[in-house]
Amino acid sequence: MRLAEVERPVPGDGEVLVRVRAVSLNLSDWETLVGRPAYARIGGPFRPRDAILGSDIAGVVEAVGPGVTRLRPGDEVFGDNLEKKGGFAEYAVAREKALSVKPAGLSFVDAAALPQSGVIALQGTRGVEEGQSVLVNGAAGGAGSLAVQLARRAGAEVTGVDRGDKLAFAREMGAHHVLDYTTADFTRAGARYDLVLDLVASRGVLALRRALAPDGRYYAVGGPVPTLLGVLFLGPLTGRRIRVLAVRQNETDLLEIAGRYGDGTLNPVVERTYPLEETPVALRHLGDGDARGKVVITVDAG
Ligand SMILES: NC(=O)c1ccc[n+]([C@@H]2O[C@H](COP(=O)([O-])OP(=O)(O)OC[C@H]3O[C@@H](n4cnc5c(N)ncnc54)[C@H](OP(=O)(O)O)[C@@H]3O)[C@@H](O)[C@H]2O)c1
Known about the structure:
single chain, alpha/beta, 7-stranded mixed sheet, 6-stranded parallel sheet, 9 helices, 13 strands, binds NADP nicotinamide-adenine-dinucleotide phosphate
């Protein structure tokens, strides 16, 4: 990665130019950068299709292209710009439909932290009921730290699985129980869960079946392609609800998670911020697995 002066992008039909104020890192940025898991090479087998990565942006509308009806210059917006990316920059172009108006009480940093992780967490924990037993695999990461909180707020008994040095953070987020994945296998711990939300899909379907209550659900969100394919094709044969969760970004869910975060119902998940020039250091921090919750880049377009 390198820092360079490039032309300011121009919004096309239905697109908006955003002056970026903050952009959060997602594991998907790191996966696209290093080309692993294999799905990260879709659209760019040998190098990332987009030279500038960064999808979870928050900023101010600078200009709008033809056909934009909802947003106008000066609006404060946020959203997951996964389709066009370009967020590790002073200006980024996004489709109007990828952006929502930022709630006034939410800072740009918090707004940038939420789109991808927040919507994964919301859709992944939807339907959790009081008294249920929920396990979040990858509990100290971006999506996991929000999912733990949502499940706990829904009244579930929550187990968080992550690397040992991050388990205190998973507890801070609300996990009643924690497991270190480097020394323990949650599918062999003897417990049966009503929901397993798996951000890192580390186990095969037979092992997963063991860890589910008879009516339990398992959702794989990310992880190695062979494991995800196993879940996709073999999951339905297990007699349990074991499947891949295809997360759909949408404004209703984004505003719901932003509302709950903004009114203090959820604990802060932003671990630290870095200036734009330090984006490579920030990505390395995430890629090395040292981040807890969300890491956000702040941008001062001068
Ligand atoms: N399904 C969809 O529609 C969809 C949409 C968008 C994104 N995604 C995917 O969703 C995932 C979201 O991840 P995120 O942003 O929350 O990642 P993250 O912030 O990097 O968190 C992942 C956490 O899992 C931990 N971990 C790694 N291996 C583990 C294992 N075997 N068992 C338990 N924990 C483990 C990591 O710790 P260490 O690194 O220290 O091991 C890290 O703390 C990404 O894979 C992304 O590609 C899916």
